[in-house]
Write a structure and sequence with these properties.
Blueprint: H1 14-24, H2 38-50, H3 63-80, E1 83-89, E2 93-99, E3 106-113, H4 125-133, E4 140-148, H5 152-165, E5 176-186, E6 189-200, E7 205-207, E8 211-212, H6 216-223
Parallel strand pairs: 3-4, 4-5
Antiparallel strand pairs: 1-2, 2-3, 5-6, 6-7, 6-8
Helix pairs in contact: 2-3
Length: about 230
């Protein structure tokens, strides 16, 4: 998946870099260090590919079309970042994303479900993700699902409570990147509204910008009562 001799990031020198830059900008402004984890970068790339869908907001997305589109977006994001991607592995996880080098190794374990109501079903996708992430010291988790906008807040709360109530033996507790494709039901058609993305940590929920499939007016109307 590309040349291994690519530019690499090194996190160890960051504090010294901050110290040097702060010294040169003394009296001008404060300097803080920002590091984007590979898992976070992967999710950002995934969203760019995922929202570039050939389907219109009025199409009824079949399970087959949906699965193929998610597969394509995952593969494209991995390729863009020179990452490896394996499907249906580690106890039937939908995908595992890892680096070509040994470090940091596996950065993300992923699942996707066509119906949010099945996430807490007999297979309990969140358990699979939590257990999968804990097999690798630097791995986070990724869950994508569809949810009726009427159930969005309740479903989100249920996932957050589950993830934050888990106890981790790792020094860095894995985050869960939760991607929710919201829709409203119009007779037999699911009208897709927007993609909501959250990073759920052990104590915080980070809300990213929604990515809308509809006009600004329709989007604002859809979130008015959330």
């Amino acid at each position: 998946m590309g040349d291994k001799n690519i530019i690499k990031e090194y996190d160890r020198p960051l504090p010294k870099n901050i110290e040097g830059l702060q010294k040169s900008l003394e009296g001008v402004c404060k300097v803080i260090g920002i590091q984007h984890r590979l898992s976070e970068s992967f999710v950002l790339h995934f969203l760019c590919h995922f929202v570039d869908t050939p389907l219109t907001s009025n199409d009824n997305l079949s399970k087959s079309n949906w699965t193929h589109h998610v597969y394509f977006a995952i593969r494209s994001a991995a390729k863009a970042l020179y990452l490896g991607c394996t499907f249906e592995t580690m106890g039937r996880l939908d995908a595992v994303i890892d680096t070509l080098d040994d470090y940091p190794g596996t950065i993300l374990v992923a699942e996707w479900e066509s119906d949010s109501s099945s996430v807490f079903g007999k297979d309990n996708e969140l358990d699979k993700l939590w257990n999968g992430a804990h097999q690798h010291q630097n791995a986070d988790s990724f869950l994508l699902t569809y949810c009726n906008i009427e159930k969005l807040q309740d479903f989100t709360k249920q996932v957050v409570e589950y993830w934050q109530n888990k106890k981790s033996g790792r020094e860095n507790t894995p985050s869960l990147f939760l991607i929710i494709v919201t829709y409203k039901q119009e007779k037999r058609v699911q009208k897709f509204l927007f993609v909501r993305s959250l990073e759920i940590t052990s104590s915080t929920v980070c809300l990213w910008h929604d990515l809308a499939f509809v006009t600004e007016e329709e989007y604002l109307e859809s979130i008015q009562n959330l």
